[in-house]
């Protein structure tokens, strides 16, 4: 049995090799069991130079990399010199035995021989009794001058809010002495003091991290090179304040707490994502450089005022992505004094495919009259068509009239997770009819993720759309 048969992930890793020249001389040989056909001597894994072997191993989890050492005596200790360590308890032979897994990580690090680390990634079903183990692992990575540190300690068997015991207390001060550029923490806590300085840190991702209000401003002020910050499920923060002249990308996700506030001052911010981050008060100052914005709020009467504030703060962005949770009860309230998106050239909408949501798309196109690219992400992928009288009565509101005169600049339509429902087809026909400068319509199938996206339905819908599109020869229509 060849190495490619014994370790399928090795084949995947070799396909991901970044250097084409690296394997040019090997393509006719045997790497995963195939034989040369042009008369040249087959080249086997053992014939590859050491730097190529290490490059291949860098794409594997540490478990697979160690298994690979059994292929040949030459590779016995090759894993101990790789540039990235990837520990994942989910793929460990006994994933439910945390004690055995912790011992495995300990032994692996003792034998590791490389002088430095590019990345250290650990996925561990953490319990407080293992805190000393994790302390030693973090210290090991910092001493190896790790550049990217990922600790996902939330546990693969747990969901948010169901953790047992306290989170891991991360020794943030250790990073002052390393060369870390990327920090990604999940299910941790830390104390951030004002005098801590992290001269190399450029990206910070905090997921389900327990910190107080002072932690984020202190961390940001201590990172002179910080360009990317992400906060996800960080419920212990009540008043979030971020002041940064260098920050370029900010993600605020999955948060709701009474009497909370958000204050952002970031004059060089290019991308802002506010995904279900619900605070009582928002204050965004000096976002003049903003180019991309994502604003996702559930469409409820309670959240509508907050949605308006956030959208109003990012309305000058060139690219805006929104949720299209549209219903008749909120239609009038949402459309009243609607914020105009005059500068938006690319509009993305996560939407269902019911008729109500088709009208919601029309409403968004009304407030963004200069859109060039429309991206629709179909997420409620049930081929729903209205049947009762009240729905049909509302459906008499003419979609064609809603779209007329609003598509003067639209050139590209992209539909992701396309099902091929009657409502989707109707909308696309109207876009074809009124998109006077429309050039391209790309439909990305929802198969195989959606049971409603049958091959037959997709084929019939595409055929009907292309038949209708014959009247618009300048528009390229494709389904993939």
TrEMBL record:
Identification of the protein by name: F-box domain-containing protein
Species, as recorded: Aristolochia fimbriata (White veined hardy Dutchman's pipe vine)
Pfam families documented for this protein: F-box (PF00646), LRR_At1g61320_AtMIF1 (PF23622)
Domain annotation F-box: ranges: 42-91
Source taxon at top rank: Eukaryota
InterPro entries: At1g61320/At1g61330-like, F-box-like_dom_sf, F-box_dom, LRR_At1g61320_AtMIF1, LRR_dom_sf
